[in-house]
Design brief:
The complex is a heterodimer of chains A (about 300) and B (about 325). Chain A has about 300 residues and is an all-alpha fold. Chain A is built from twelve helices and no strands. Chain B has one domain: MetI-like (MetI-like fold). The chains are: A mainly alpha (about 300), B mainly alpha (about 325).
């Protein structure tokens, strides 16, 4: 405002529109705080973008059909392929899912259908939360002491470790979906005199199946990238594609552990191979998580509608 | 046959055939699954402490105070990895708590509906990146960037002993702290977003109607009513940071000494297990690593119980299964 001191007309028109003093300070503080919050959200998205883009730029160049289907080279001068790691990861994670998914669903059924709101359900819930909080590396040394000492490393040991990591995730997700199944369905089945187990198998599980499957998919995405327990039993790995997880005495090749080993070595071709493997793994995990989340929203909407 | 007899409700029908066994089988199966989960946790604790027992009886509780770690001479102390764990986790929490809570505020109160649906899932995807890939990225991309920034950090913040003279090697406690904060931010963000959404709309509207700005509404209504929830989110994040092994092992440089500067290398309990377990030298070495795992297990159980306790005290309705 550049009006002269005597120019009252201009002063009166302009003055009320510009906050002054305390109000001005409050508005500035508000603006600073909201932009800081917006900036924090942007920062997280930018970090995600930087990580994904740098992995893609390093890894996409290595990627080819041969990279996915060939064995690693005998001589470190070539990049070769990661077929054994892909097959090994698939076998280990598949076996872990086969163990964790039925168990997780049964536990969720116990907490929602058999003994809901009981003390034992509360205890189980606490135990699952604790299990979920146990660091993956501790689960790794546990499995090493339980299964590798005396029997030698195997793909199966890795599967059990991943199953322990997946169990709380699957049962928590299943429990959430089971709680969304309308209780009117249960009441209707009870009123018709249907036995509880028939209600569970015929009414409750089919309604919750979509949610349980997507919860399992999210757990698979988590387990596929889990490296800590697998690094500990990445021992005596036989070269070439292995499909038998019960080959005691020989560890199974897998993507996360191979990335870890390559990242701590100085061989350039090994590093290039690790970037390729990281790219394959990251794409699998991102696509699985995004897909699972979309499915989850859909099945949740269907149940609550 | 009289009408009364026909409409008289039948006595509770005895389940017949399959139904007699079906319910029992379902109950037994579910109960067995729960027992298995219970025994898993006990077996885990037993195995870890049983394998650690040679070291526990040999070194006692003094293990946590000693800084020497010499596998060749069978001398082990957890001082260095304990220090590294404390420093990196504290740094991760210091960064991730304000950032995570801010993201929670943005996603629950500030963002337009359409952006909310995009940014929310993106933040959760950040949590989906495997730690081994994040660590690899940290080693190749973040560590050199931090190394280039070290002289500047030392010049501007050098009066704090933590920001010591710049180092030539990439890996450091500082990089590990940054990587851990990237892993903890999505956890705190998604918990606090859900938390802020539970604050009743009327309270928010009331504050705004009284003339409060958005920030004053957050500071005066949202944060006070969710403090304990935010605290439990922070504790859960801390638990995650304490136990992360692989990503830290890749970027921390496996140092064997305690340095006051963040730019020096170090080691955490989890990363030391990850790096030394596959190539252990003798049985004493293994049991010392199991001792570290046992300490880690206790830390994780304590942080989890604290988080659960805070949640239950704050919201008794949520504590029930």
């Amino acid at each position: 405002m550049t009006g002269e001191p005597g120019d009252l007309r201009e002063y009166d028109v302009e003055a009320p529109l510009v906050p002054t003093g305390n109000l001005r300070r409050r508005i500035v503080v508000n603006r600073v705080a909201t932009s800081a919050a917006t900036g924090a959200a942007l920062l997280a998205v930018v970090v995600l973008a930087i990580v994904v883009i740098s992995v893609a730029r390093k890894g996409a160049g290595v990627l080819s059909f041969g990279f996915l289907t060939k064995n690693p080279p005998l001589f470190p001068t070539q990049v070769g392929g990661i077929a054994p790691a892909i097959v090994g990861s698939a076998v280990i994670v598949g076996l872990a899912t086969a163990m964790a998914a039925p168990l997780g669903v049964l536990i969720a059924l116990y907490m929602t259908e058999i003994a809901p709101k009981s003390r034992s359900a509360q205890l189980i819930r606490m135990v699952l939360d604790l299990l979920n909080g146990v660091p993956a590396i501790v689960i790794g040394v546990f499995i090493y002491g339980l299964m590798v000492v005396g029997h030698g490393p195997s793909g199966f040991a890795g599967s059990v470790a991943l199953a322990i990591i997946m169990l709380p995730l699957i049962s928590r997700a299943s429990q959430e979906v089971l709680l969304l199944v309308p209780s009117t369905l249960r009441d209707a089945a009870d009123a018709l005199g249907v036995a509880r187990w028939r209600t569970v198998l015929g009414v409750i599980l089919p309604n919750a199946l979509g949610g349980i499957l997507t919860g399992t998919l999210l757990a698979i995405a988590r387990a596929a990238g889990e490296s800590a327990p697998l690094v500990l039993i990445y021992l005596a790995v036989t070269p070439g594609v292995q499909t038998n997880p019960f080959n005691f005495g020989h560890g199974m090749d897998n993507i996360p552990a191979s990335i870890f080993v390559a990242s701590t070595s100085d061989v350039k071709t090994a590093e290039a191979r690790a970037w390729g493997a990281a790219f394959v793994l990251l794409m699998f995990i991102l696509i699985t998580s995004v897909g699972a989340r979309a499915l989850l929203n859909r099945s949740r909407r269907r149940l609550t509608a | 046959m009289s009408v009364a007899a026909r409409i008289r409700p039948p006595a509770r029908a005895r389940p017949r055939g399959l139904d007699r066994y079906g319910d029992v089988a379902l109950k037994l199966l579910c109960g067995a699954a729960c027992l298995l989960a219970l025994s898993l946790l006990f077996d885990l604790a037993y195995t870890v402490f049983h394998r650690a027992s040679p070291s526990i009886s040999h070194f006692g509780i003094g293990f946590v105070g000693h800084t020497a770690w010499k596998p060749n001479f069978k001398i082990f102390g957890a001082g260095v990895p304990l220090y590294g764990t404390a420093v990196t986790s504290a740094m991760a929490l210091l960064i991730a708590l304000p950032v995570g809570v801010s993201i929670g505020l943005y996603l629950s109160l500030l963002a337009p509906k359409r952006l909310r649906g995009i940014i929310g899932p993106l933040v959760e995807l950040l949590a989906a990146i495997p730690s081994v890939i994040l660590g690899f990225w940290g080693l190749i991309f973040l560590a050199p960037a931090v190394r280039d920034a070290e002289p500047w950090l030392h010049r501007t913040l050098g009066f704090i002993p933590l920001f010591g003279p710049p180092q030539t090697a990439g890996p450091s406690l500082f990089v590990a702290g940054l990587i851990l904060s990237i892993m903890v931010v999505p956890i705190i963000a998604s918990i606090s977003r859900d938390l802020f959404l539970t604050v009743p709309q009327e309270l928010r509207d009331g504050a705004i109607a009284l003339g409060a700005t958005r920030w004053e509404m957050v500071r005066g209504v949202i944060l006070p009513s969710t403090t304990s929830g935010v605290a439990s989110a922070a504790v859960l994040g801390l638990g995650r940071a304490l136990g992360e092994a692989i990503a830290v092992a890749q970027v921390i440089g496996a140092g064997t000494l305690i340095h006051h500067s963040l730019f020096e290398t170090g080691d955490t309990m989890a990363s030391r297990i990850a790096l030394q377990f596959p190539g252990y030298l003798n049985q004493q070495h293994v049991s010392a690593l199991y001792y570290l795992a046992g300490i880690l297990l206790i830390f994780s159980l304590i942080t989890n119980l604290i988080a659960q306790g805070i949640q239950r005290r704050f919201n008794p309705a949520k504590g029930l299964a």
